Amino acid sequence: MNLAHTAVLLWVWGSLQAFEIVEQENIFQRTPCPAFLMFDNAAYLADMSFELPCRCKPEEVSTVVWYYQKHLGSDHTRVLTDFDGRVLTEESQVRVGSDMLVRFSIRMFSLLVFRAQPEDSGLYFCGTRKGDYFYAYDVDIQSGEDMVATFKDQGQEPFADEHRGNLHIFTTFWEWTPCDRCGVRGEQWRIGLCYLQSPGLSPRFRRTLPDVVSCGSQAVPQKLRAQAREHTPELLVQSCVVPCEKKEVREGLVAILSYVSKVGSRPWLPQVPIQFHQQRLGQGLIISCPGARPEHAVAWDKDRQYFYRTQYLRGVNRSMRVFIDHGNHLHIRFTQLSDRGIYYCWRQGVRVAGLRLGVTARGHYRASFSDPETRSAVQLTLIGYLVITAIFVTIHLCRCCCYLSRCWPNYSP
Known about the structure:
Elements: H1 3-17, H2 19-30, E1 39-45, E2 50-52, E3 65-69, E4 77-79, E5 104-107, E6 110-113, E7 122-127, E8 133-142, E9 148-151, E10 162-164, E11 167-173, E12 185-197, E13 205-206, E14 212-214, H3 222-227, E15 234-241, H4 251-263, E16 274-280, E17 285-287, E18 298-302, E19 305-307, H5 309-312, E20 322-324, E21 330-332, E22 341-347, E23 350-360, H6 372-407
């Protein structure tokens, strides 16, 4: 290959690498910014991660700054960037309950918010460091604490629409998730969020359908929002059965196993990565599926026991010791010796990881005041000392009173 051919190949490779950036710039050239700032309405469930693209900006602007306001016209505005549009946070470093300022990232002029919480609801502005806004969003994060589950296999139906005069409150469902298991009976579900329809909403908020926005939108007056507060998000669950995709085993691995089987017994080879965890008896445990999000289809098994949401979903039975929350986490309250085993996690219909749980009744445990159990033990100990001291002082006061009454009796003249 001569020098000319090499130069052509390098030019083609460089063009392919730059295609995505050029395409992103062309989007801004094709999308003019509105003369009057409008707000796109978007609704999500708590603990979800979402992306807000800055759909327009002047060509001379090379970096954008994202701003946040709790309410329109609020005096307090948060700046969600380092003024250079750099990436500030990675999703793997974000924990549940972290402050919003450490749960966002700026990538290609878009704002990414990780593990959103209801208090993150509000207005998001894309603009410059001088405070000029180009594009804006009205974001509604709906809490999943009171989410109601509906099981189609049991003949249950979702909430009926509510009509209160001109106010129409209803649930808008997302698409069905894939089946959470393969080869056996699994489950799939769809998330439903609260929406309402009412005339006279603010014209500054863009809507997919006429006069329809999410229940927590800033376009909804406070009076109407209070009426829709009882309409909680829904979860619609149904059974499904899908076959598993066949996977080819690597030839090198087959050769090693064949050699080992000839020498001795064939070793047990886990199909997925398995992590070992030792848990103290009586303590609580929360297990997360690697790489899973609340909108993903996630399932849990213990050895050959399947944890179906019809039986183990949070809220189905208030006395459950083992349950699955709406964020796809597996909870074990007051760990018992019978909880020992391998817990498998399915994500989007594929088994991806396992946790071998061991339960011990003894072991070294380093006390720390950051541990709730340690704080509770200290509080109970102090309360016990105070009660004993109060009883001791009371007894001695009574004895003193009795002694004084015998030594100096009252004499009548």
